[in-house]
TrEMBL record:
This is PqqA peptide cyclase. The keyword Transferase does not apply. It comes from the Bacteria. It comes from Dactylosporangium sucinum. The gene is pqqE. Its cofactor is [4Fe-4S] cluster.
Amino acid sequence: LDGTGRPAGSVGFDAAGAGPPPRDPAPLGLLAELTYRCPLHCTYCSNPVELSAYRDELTTADWRRVLDEAGDLGVLQLHLSGGEPMLRPDLVDLVAHARALGLYTNLVTSGIPLSEARLAALAGAGLDHLQLSIQDAEPAAADEVAGLRAHDRKLAVARQARAHGLPLTVNVVLHRGNVGRLLAIAELAAGLGADRLELAHTQFYGWGLRNRAALMPTPEQVAIAQRDAETARAWYGDALELVYVAADYHADRPKPCMSGWGARQLVVAPNGDALPCLAAAQLPDLGIENVRSRRLGDIWYSSASFNRFRGTGWMPDPCRSCALREVDFGGCRCQAYQITGDPAATDPACGLSPHHEWLTRITAAAGTAAAAPVPRRMA
Ligand code: SF4
Ligand code: FES
């Protein structure tokens, strides 16, 4: 909490009443989506479905300037992501540049392609942390989701990362096809020497939304997964930090998406679009700005897009009068838009939303989809 009793970074543009003006928020983290190209075809990918619109990627000089501006803005953590960031030939250079600016660097990768020499170069450039995605504990099922033979290569990357002394998070997206193997996944991560295991139920954006019917776990599966996550926590204790990201379609309170809009984090897409969250490009009339034509700090503080849902002043009822409005920030704007068509609506994941029943109907129908999921590809 900051000095006003508000969660730090959630200072509002809803200022009602007297008192000093709220302190301007500064972002803690930048998610740099270096490219949407990727050799994998995961059906749950949260990248936009229209990937071909992002072929005109920022240059190395552009990204170095963006990192400079992020440092000036107060950003402390840089998450290098995609698509597959390893496909950028300048990745080692960008890591070294970020470290020289004093940024904490986290590489979010599928591990394909990642040679041991490149891993050594990244470690030598000062990479602070590696987050490696794994699709499943069962190799054939993992390769089927990835759309190529990747599983064994990923395990090799994990072992090499530990050999180079890199802190390692294993990230696994949970869906109907793998959620029953949660304990085997935890065993695999522990055996690889991971420091941290992130078990995240599919977030239904982009390709994940397109494939929602095929990926949605049943309520019974979610209940078992929650129990299994607690079991794994008890098994490994402090030896493996376990982060469990809930299935919010199955919940009755929404996630505090991005820790609030324009409050803690920002995203720069491969084409330079500066976004308040990774799925915001779909929102109508947002007025998205691009780092090629405006400084990151100006966009963060002054753009229409970052101010649109900042604070609590934009909220409708029931959020407006809810005691939790500065805890979950009304949930996710993108999910509200996807389900209701209105990005300013209360997230239907909230049990107090007038649209909550729509999610209940979707989860009740889980397991009945006949169609196979569509593999992600960059047309
Ligand atoms: Fe959160 Fe709004 Fe639901 Fe209250 S009504 S719990 S603020 S989403
Ligand atoms: Fe856009 Fe949640 S993903 S606000």
